[in-house]
Prior knowledge:
Blueprint: H1 12-24, H2 29-48, E1 53-57, H3 61-75, E2 80-84, H4 91-99, E3 104-106, E4 115-119, H5 131-142, E5 146-150, E6 170-176, E7 192-198, E8 208-210, E9 230-234, H6 239-251, E10 256-260, E11 272-274, H7 278-281, E12 288-291, H8 299-310, E13 315-317, H9 320-324, H10 327-331, E14 337-339, H11 343-350, H12 357-368, E15 371-374, E16 380-382, E17 388-390, H13 403-418, H14 421-439, H15 445-450, H16 452-457
Parallel strand pairs: 1-2, 1-4, 2-3, 4-5, 5-6, 6-7, 8-17, 9-10, 9-12, 10-11, 12-13, 13-14, 14-15
Antiparallel strand pairs: 15-16, 16-17
Helix pairs in contact: 2-3, 2-4, 3-4, 6-13, 13-14
Amino acid sequence: MMPLDCRPILTAAAMRAAEERAVAAGTSVETLMERAGTAIAGQVRRLAGDQEVLILCGPGNNGGDGYVAARVLAAAGHPVRVAATGEPRSAAAIAARRRWDGAVEILGEARRAPVLVDALFGTGLTRGLEPEVAATLTCLAAGARLRIAVDLPSGAATDDGRLLSPVPEYDLTLALGALKPSHLLLPAAARARHVAVLDIGVAAESEVTALTRPRLSAPGAEAHKYSRGMVAIVAGAMPGASALAASAAAGGGAGYVLLLGSATDQVPHAVVRRRFDPVTLADHRIDALLIGPGLGRDERARERLDAAIDSDRPLVIDGDALRLVSVEVVAARKAPTILTPHMGEFDALFGASDAAKTDRALAAARSSGATIVFKGADTVIAEPDGNLRVATGAPTWLSTAGTGDVLAGLVAARLAVTRDPLAAAGEAVWLHGEAARRAGPAFIADDLARHLPEAIAACL
């Protein structure tokens, strides 16, 4: 197994192409299947103990992997049974079935087992399971203590996180060769508690990868408050939101944080408060400007947004500002820009769509020329040049008011520090999730900001 950090994410078409390249280079489909089945069997043996294993095999190569795994387990003396939807159809799967000399039960008549391995359908599924098959799978999964899916849970689409039919919850999904989008995108991603990548000898390359823990550096001996990054945050109608963002920026590594145009004093004393005016925005020492948290949508908000857009400073646009700005205005900016929309804000700015979240984020980045942080439990970060990062494992306790303001402040801080929009977005999203993990359950956004230094310490 391989860690998910920085692992490439391949669509169904990209995975097929990678396998075809492996075959063209001299590795047969049968060899790839043997590698996959052997690796699956190794993981099942490690986790199952001496419990009986039931492997469900479909008609394609995913089922062939299951037959190989069953044969390897049986050869090791492990109790294993096989149930299938019918006879295999692909040449490699037929060969794998012939090498399995045990019984093959009819899927609908199979008895439950403590360990269930779902090798019915993997990458490339385009329609839901037949109702009888889906019902049987659900029943067998309910009776198992350990549930393992091969490549993808049967019933999940590969590329966009959709569930094409009812899908049970699995303890582990064994991704073959590479991650697929639905391992990380909701709702499919929620059907597996853990995902592990098995190496089957296929070279997997992609500009789409899983977000990794950042490697941060402590300030050097020559550092001072301005060299460490200066962040300016524009306040608005709801001062609490910009105060949260300022607290996050201060705790997120910036050397100097300005809060502009706010009457609140509910910020750390280290945050400098100033009036909002063109002179302040023109300060060349500002490395990142943030507007949007609590901005409001009145005329004053529009005026402040126009001034921020017109500045030559790297800009983070969040919250209310995303409802006031246009794609064309963002695209016309010369300085780096990061947009941090949640689903509703994204739909309002870029239009609603049923396309995969990764595809939508990339299209938005290309049309706006900005780095996109498409927020959610499956946050997607996209650059106009095609680079994408998909975050995993964010605590669901983040679904509370103000956590987006904390993330916006953190993005601005990391942008001021790194001067690199993609690096800043990735660092901020990872640190945001890590701070939430350290805050524990039922935290509020104010608590989250206080845990950011601990999250940074974990990356030094």
